[in-house]
Structures are given as C-alpha cells and as structure tokens.
Write a structure and sequence with these properties.
mainly alpha, disordered N terminus, 6 helices
Length: 159
C-alpha cells in the first residue's frame, strides 16, 4: 500500500465515524414523533437527514483526485445514504408507527397518544443493520455496476 493510500485510509470520516452520523437518523425520529409534532417539525427532520446525505456525498466527491472517480464516489454515497439513511428507514418507521397507532388504545388516552411514538423510537436501532445490509447488497449487485457503466460511457462519448 502506498503512503498516500495509507494516509487517506486513516483520514477521519466525520459522516460515518463521528457524532454527525446521527443526523442521518433525524427523519426516523421525525417519523416516530409525527403523531405528536407540527408538520413543519416533521418535515424539518427530513431536511436534516437530506442535508446529511448531501454533505456525505460531497465529502466523498471531494476526497477523490480524479474527476471520474470523484463523480462515481459521490454518486455511490448519494445513492447509498439516500436509500439507507432516508428512504427505507423513513418508510419503515412510518409504517411501524401507523400500525402501532391502529393497535393502540384511542389517542384520547395517554397510552394511545404516546405508545406509537415510543414503538417507533424503539424500532430505530432494530432496523438499521438489516436495512444497511439490504442496501449494501442492492448497491453491490445493481446500483454500483449501473453507476460505473454510466460514468464510463460518459467518458467514452465525451458528454
């Protein structure tokens, strides 16, 4: 391994290794609290997660020294984070909270009002690894080859 490769490998990734990583979970928290908070706060949780996804993709883009590699890495990060941090977990928690709301007592009771949110929050740690693995598989088998093919075709045609 070259010295520059070793230095790059040791370079800290604040989006994946630091506390900033938890910003990617903001929409799951928003989905959990959806029955209790104003719509603006709920949508704001998605804005926080989307900013995290874009920031991580931009970081991966900037870490590359070659324009094509930068574009590929940025696109891969955007796709992975979009699926694994926003789309799939948001949908999953939304459905869990909806089901919990249907199974809970009427929202006029304390249990009926807060149980769906508690169930949604409790499920966040349970869904992360399975979703990450599913997105890894989808990226490896479907999206990565498409992204690489698209960028290499662009290079050949000069567009």
């Amino acid at each position: 391994m070259a010295a520059s490769d070793a230095a790059e490998e040791k370079q800290s990734d604040i989006y994946r290794d630091g506390l900033l990583r938890y910003a990617g979970y903001a929409n799951e928290v928003g989905e959990s609290f959806k029955p209790l908070i104003p719509r603006g706060a709920y949508l704001g949780s998605y804005a926080v997660s989307a900013a995290y996804v874009v920031g991580d993709a931009q970081d991966k883009y900037r870490r590359q020294h070659d324009a094509t590699a930068a574009s590929i890495e940025g696109a891969k990060a955007l796709a992975w984070q979009g699926l694994a941090s926003v789309i799939l977990p948001g949908f999953t928690i939304n459905r869990i909270v909806a089901l919990a709301s249907r199974l809970a007592p009427p929202p006029t009771t304390r249990l009926g009002r807060y149980a769906p949110t508690a169930v949604g929050l409790a499920c966040i740690p349970l869904i992360i690894r399975p979703i990450d693995r599913a997105v890894d598989l989808a990226m490896d088998t479907l999206l990565d080859p498409l992204i690489h093919r698209a960028f290499h075709l662009r290079e050949k045609t000069g567009s």
